[in-house]
């Protein structure tokens, strides 16, 4: 699961939680009524701050993060990464018009004009919540204290198999009795294994956070890169278009499981935002069947040798046409990575190990 998907899930939960109690956790209200009640509850909160502690469990690996956040309506935000150590000191600040991201290790600032439309798309909050409640059974388990604050403990499970939110098939949420804000999350996969824990500490509401907190001053000597938001979102294209756009020869599998066909591809280059010497170009190929099951094949060429993603540290070593590869079983999602020449390849899908290996072995260098 990517960070962006996780953050999207968190955003939906923050929107949803106040509504669950207004509706008595029965889901009987219409989407329109839910949206009205949500807006009424949210109207009283003008600003808030907290520290979020995140623990993720991927394979045999545990990763801990800590982030400090300030937010002020309607559109001002500030986050500071405390942990992990390699990312500590990274700052992201938005005043609603521009977003600045500062990397202290490279002394680099990325400045980006915020888009006119929400990042999550054009679906309004009523539609998001209505869809979530239609697919989820929510129950109230009782009361517990989180960081000394009384909280309602909720459990949310998909009504139908495969209808979980972004690889999440079960959730527990602790919601502050006073502010109706979530204080803790636990997210589970379809096997009931814990994927991630989040806990919010030092929550403060309506403290009249000054606008000066969201004014970013460029550090002395820092390099500033100005970006366009649209340029960061790769365009969906045909395989022929991707071959014309990419700076390297794209490899394609000769074997696909029955029912799967090419859907679309994207080409992206991170040279505008990557630290010096760490630029790369990536091609994504998406294959899909009639049931909406997918196979993602990513191919990346790095400017210099790239470090292996931490998620693969606990992966199983495998052989692909005599080449070294790594396989990671994440329950609802499996990853297979290997290398052909200068190209780093990765398959991501819910298919079983043997099918991933069969697909990978059919990907060969062009003659």
Q: Tell me the CATH architecture of the largest domain.
A: Clam
Q: Report the sheet with the most strands, covering strand number, pairing sense and barrel closure.
A: 12 strands, mixed
* Shape by Cα distribution: globular
Q: How many helix segments?
A: 5
| Unreliably modeled segments | 1-35, 119-130
The H/E string reads HHEEEEEEHEEEEEEHEEEEEEEH
Oligomer: single chain
Q: How far apart lie the N and C ends?
A: 35 Å
Q: Structural class, from secondary structure content? A: alpha+beta
By CATH reckoning, the class of the largest domain would read Mainly Beta
The proportion of residues forming helix, as a percent range, comes to 10-25%
CATH topology description of the largest domain: outer membrane lipoprotein receptor (LolB), chain A
CA radius of gyration is: 22 Å
In spatial order, strands of the major sheet run 7-8-9-10-11-1-2-3-4-5-6-12
* Count of individual domains: 2
Could you give me the name of the CATH homologous superfamily of the largest domain? Lipoprotein localisation LolA/LolB/LppX
Query: Quick check: average pLDDT?
Result: 79
Residue fraction in strands: 35-45%
Number of strands: 19
């Amino acid at each position: 699961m990517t960070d962006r998907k996780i953050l999207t899930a968190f955003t939906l939960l923050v929107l949803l939680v106040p509504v669950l109690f207004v509706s008595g956790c029965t889901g009987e209200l219409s989407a329109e009524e839910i949206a009205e009640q949500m807006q009424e509850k949210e109207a009283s909160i003008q600003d808030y701050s907290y520290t979020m502690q995140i623990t993720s469990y991927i394979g045999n690996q545990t990763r801990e993060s800590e982030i400090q956040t300030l937010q002020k309506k309607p559109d001002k935000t500030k986050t500071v990464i405390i942990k992990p150590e390699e990312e500590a000191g990274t700052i992201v600040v938005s005043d609603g018009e521009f977003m600045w991201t500062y990397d202290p290790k490279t002394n680099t600032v990325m400045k980006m004009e915020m888009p006119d439309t929400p990042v999550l798309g054009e679906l309004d909050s009523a539609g998001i919540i209505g869809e979530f409640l239609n697919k989820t059974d929510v129950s109230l388990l009782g009361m517990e204290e989180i960081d000394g604050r009384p909280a309602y403990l909720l459990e949310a499970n998909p009504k139908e198999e495969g209808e979980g939110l972004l690889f999440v098939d079960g959730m527990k949420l602790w919601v502050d009795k006073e502010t109706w804000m979530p204080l803790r999350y636990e997210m589970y996969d379809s096997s009931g294994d814990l994927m991630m824990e989040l806990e919010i500490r030092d929550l403060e509401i309506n403290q009249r956070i000054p606008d000066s907190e969201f004014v970013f001053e460029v550090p002395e000597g820092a390099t500033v890169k100005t970006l366009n938001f649209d340029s960061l979102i790769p365009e969906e294209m045909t395989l022929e278009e991707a071959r014309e756009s990419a700076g390297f020869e794209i490899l394609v599998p000769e074997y696909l499981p029955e029912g799967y066909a090419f859907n679309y591809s994207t080409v992206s280059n991170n040279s505008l935002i990557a630290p010096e010497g760490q630029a790369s170009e990536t091609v994504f190929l998406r294959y899909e069947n009639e049931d909406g099951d997918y196979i993602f094949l990513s191919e990346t060429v790095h400017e210099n040798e790239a470090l292996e993603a931490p998620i693969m540290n606990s992966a199983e070593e495998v052989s692909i046409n005599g080449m070294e590869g790594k396989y990671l079983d994440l329950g609802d999602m499996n990853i297979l990575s290997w290398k052909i020449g200068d190209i780093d390849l990765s398959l991501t899908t819910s298919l079983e190990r043997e099918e991933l290996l069969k697909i990978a072995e059919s990907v060969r260098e062009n003659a």
